[in-house]
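Quick one from the shared queue. A colleague (R.T.) flagged JmjC domain-containing protein as missing a structural entry in our internal table.

Convert sequence to structure tokens.
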Amino acid sequence: MEQLPLPRDRRQGALGVLNVLSDELICAILELLSPSDLGRLSCVSSVLYIFCNEEPLWMNLCLRLGGQVEYMGSWKRTILYREKLCTKLEELQREPLHFDGFSSLFLYRRWYRCFATLNGFSLDKGDMERINNAKLEELNCTIDEMKPVLLTEVAKAWPARSRWTMDQFLSNYGDVAFRISQRSSKKITMKFKDYISYMKSQHDEDPLYVFDDKFGENAPALLQDYSVPHLFEEDFFDVLDYDQRPPFRWLIIGPERSGASWHVDPGLTSAWNTLLCGRKRWALYPPGRVPVGVTVHVSEDDGDVNIESPSSLQWWLDIYPLLADHDKPLECTQLPGETIFVPSGWWHCVLNLETTIAVTQNFANASNFEFICLDMAPGHAHKGVSRAGLLAIRDVAHDHAKNNSKFETTLSHCPDMNKTHQEKRLKVSESVKEQHGNRYSWNSISALSDAHKQYNQDFSYDIDFLSAFLDKETDHYNSTFCVSNIIGERELRAWLHKLWVTKPAIRQLIWKGACLALNVEKWATCLLKICAHHNLPSPLSHEKFPVGTGSNPVFLVSGYVVKIFVEGGRGYSMHSLGTELEFKTILDKVKSPLMDHVPEIVASGFVVGDHSDFKIFAWDGREVPDMIANTIPMIGGNVSHGFPFGVWSKKKFQLENLGVNSFIRIWPYIVSRRCRGDILANVRDQLSENEAFHLASFLGEQLRHLHLLPLPNIQVNENHIDMGRTMQSDEVGCNNWSANAALMETGCKDFDTLQGWKLVMATLDRRKANVKKILAQWGDPIPAFLMDKVEEYLPHDVSVLFDVKKGDDGSYIYTRSPTWIHSDIMDDNIHMKQCCPSESADTHLGMNAIFEEKLWKWRSFG
């Protein structure tokens, strides 16, 4: 019998020099191209045609665009239709070409995942305890907060048990756009009717699923169909308004083969998940036990945690079968009506065995509160250890495996490890792979599992254990805040303070958490020393907690405001206090009407030392104590009104980025009397049009007084021009402030000669260079297209913003001088005693008092 010839291998001839690249790398490169380029490249050869028509490629391209998606039966058709690259319907429906002579194990495995059936995953081995209502009663309606469980009847009476079906969702919410699982940095939404169409026709290897934390806003009736199980009703985030709290509840709808890859819930929160329709397969590992195939990255810069994991389906198909029985996770199949509880720190991944509908919520309670606070503390070692155990500390793990010594011996060295011996990004539990088709080796996985167990035998998910990895020298107010934290830095401080005020019964617990997140004990000790030194009333229990969300610890003690300056480090904070004192002195000297609205300064100084020995030194800002001179770089030649740390010195300090090499701990402070009134944010909605007009008139008048204030004296380079010499104390009044005449009358050949203008120009140039970064930090309120154009609105030469005239001799004459303008007037910098609205109406709605505290935050040059 004649043997048929083997089909020719197309790969080498069709790819040319690209033949040296692996199929996986080629697919990754193609994702960088535009749809038009892919279309052109697909015409080059048969193999490139195959690569350029892979559905996962077009899916990723579409998701990269973000926005609302209307699925057209395939991802290639969807993006071509969306980008208007094909205008005729028949072009979108053309059948793909087929070629022989090319095979790819990488593409085949991906194709297999697209069409795999999950019937074999239905078996439940009974790993997880199932608890019904009767057993809950026996347990006094409590569960073990450190152990996952399945609750079988807590959702028995929910209307959602009968209402949450695919047909009813389609009927009631077909035109509602829901958020889709975040496969890209862009927000993706689909109308539910379009999502149903997608589910019925898709064959994706990692299908999209609805994962919407805003479903209560888009479909509020859904919130009436379920209630939080009574076991999980305690949630410390409920002290915040809805728009202030982090995302906490999600509607989850997904087809067969979709699911969530391995992760630990954000912020080490706990969660409950109730399934209303379909079946879900769960796999869980205890805290610190990183699943095989998962890599944890922890940034040394800000502690940001990034997890690389295969998709849920890929893990179940490729890795799970290779695990030894003792290495397999805790498993269960969740059935309709069942609620699973996932404790803080537990690793879990979920695979939908069929089309499912579920609702889930994350929460903070007494059991996980300290872990959540620890997770938001600055630093990186504790975050890595909380998720990856001792594998996150490579040196410790290596020493432990080598010497099998007691962990306590090495623990004392962990927080102070020399960072030069660490990678820039810690990488733990990276899977050992063979290079043949990206397949996992049984022997490699077993060896990795044994190493993991050996390294982590002393790991404990205990708050005392984990907190030992905190960097004890970390400054909680000046450290870089992790962008992936569940709430922002200011929001964290506001949340903890609100808990302190509204939940006095658990203050001991809140204090422990705040010590981890904010090092609040240190600042409270400083407060006690300050109060004792100046004979102020001793702080009451509720007054020992810092208020506000600003960059410095602020305390309200009786009728006083105590502010400790820590922002920017010692040098910057000393200049901040010096500027405050200098500003108050100028008001006194010129007898400005603003004096009626600025709180009285009771005391000022600085705290030196540590927890064991704090000492207080009074300081009015007029001289340079030896301790300060020896530890903080000084700005020579610019002594204004006897204030060496005044505004000019502060600006030069900022511009020259002067560092501080001393390790002496110094924190300046100021004590002022507390005013009466309320902040504008709290009364804005109560104001009538007439009241708002009077308020604007009042603030405009005070703003004029502020701009008329004389600037402090400075000496200008070799010219030694004293800006204050033209001002005599008896000439200064609220209607005749000409202290800055020297600037306006002095001509010079070089625009940068005058020190005052030089600082102004340098400050503006610096802020101009960072304007896009600053605006980006504000987030959604500023549209991206405006941010892209913002630099076009800024002049290339900022000098055009000032009135400068050129004389006949070529010198410049300045017709406008720098003035005092505001810097950070924000709610978190305003602390006053409340007064009722009726009382406020007789005095410009209490705005005198409001302005007193606002004015205290004004600075020179923004």
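The two ends are 92 Å apart (CA to CA).
Residues 540 and 557 are 8 Å apart (CA to CA).
Added to the table.
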